[in-house]
Target: CAZyme family GT25
Amino acid sequence: MGSTTFQLRSIRWIIPLMALVTFVLTCLRFYYQQAHGIKESLDSQMVSDEQRIQEEQEILKEHQFQESIQDIMNATLGFNKILAINMPSRTDKRDQLVLGSSITGFVIDFMDGVDPNDLNSKTYTYNWNYEHSATEFACLRAHLNAAQRIVQQGLRTALVLEDDVDWDISIKPQLQTFAHAVRSLQGTTQTLAESPYGDEWDLLWLGHCGASCKTELPFYMIPNDPTIPQPSHLPNYYHGPPENVRPDTTRLVCTQQDAACTPAYAMSYRGAQHILAALSVNPSGFADQLQTGDQIDIELGRMCKSGLLKCFAPYPSLFGTYRSAGLPSKGTDQSGHDSEAQMEPATSWGLVYSTMLNIKHVLQGEHVVHATWPDVEKPVINPEDIHFESGYMYTYRPEDYPGPALIPEEEPFDETVFSDETISTDEAYSISRPHATRGPHLTNEPVSQDPS
Model:
């Protein structure tokens, strides 16, 4: 009887105890699930927050990049200054630059060119090649003066123009597209930079009569560019990218190997320092790294090729050249007038919608501009309708372009590039290098006269 009573009492305690344990375990399981769910939710929220922060940072970087590119629409095309080299006696060329830049909305600071008659013989660099003329050294000295001003004034960047330069009526959106290309090549599209063109460059060779590329590095392709002249209208270029790489309607931007002529180029502060050091002061063995003593474009090309300058260039050139109507000798500062020569119309080279040839149309209040040649796709167009597509990176592979083996060019150390006796204003680039003796990359004759 007693044993039975004890068992019954025990059962009465065990049942509530088991119920309590079950309840506690159920609660613990519930709280565990809740805590695990909260942890998963917190982890998910943290991932979501990180993604959101990353997306916001990318949006901010893109916004900053677009704001930087927008600086190109300012009065100095996104550079700190625009310097134009001009002989004081050539007031006609200064007039055309002032008027042309006013049409396209930028401001030029002029620098006096150097008269060879005013040269002090002591200013010649110790290794100057005296087979070249005083006029050639005066030209080089004028460009060195531009580099000197950049360093003296502490300019981060400056665009240097020669006074026979011309540019497309859409130069600002052209340069915005170029800036995106050159920053892509620098890998700085997502990096805050002081210059809209990025900060990893020394020289942007924007106007040239030929530019070649370092083929081991990527190119940037801008397809369907409406401002590229047809092949038959391109000037005689001395250098070019590899054959068949660039479709006729595509503008290519690349890390530059070499170039010729200097109607327009930009220097950074560091680039100007190196140019002064290598071509004038030679303080630390730069002359041992590359042959110096030749014309300015040959020297700059050598500095790009050697890596002393980090250079980028578009192909075809973004800037061209212009000769106003009159005697052929108007195109050069190196010879007098031939009164018996035949008057010639105004002529522009290398541009579809030349600013200089369209000044009359703009000043007359027309809302359209005229192409340099009548056989382009749109011979008359509203500048607001000129648009540029997004580009893409491209890696050159020689095996994709079978052809004859390429023979590296030898440096033309002893090559005579100028000849005062053979000056002819029929050449497109009359200031820095009008008469290079080596053959051009292209042989198409420019046909570019005033359409009006």
Remarks:
- The helical segments are 2-70, 91-104, 134-153, 171-186, 269-281, 286-289, 296-306, 359-363.
- Residues 81 and 391 are 28 Å apart (CA to CA).
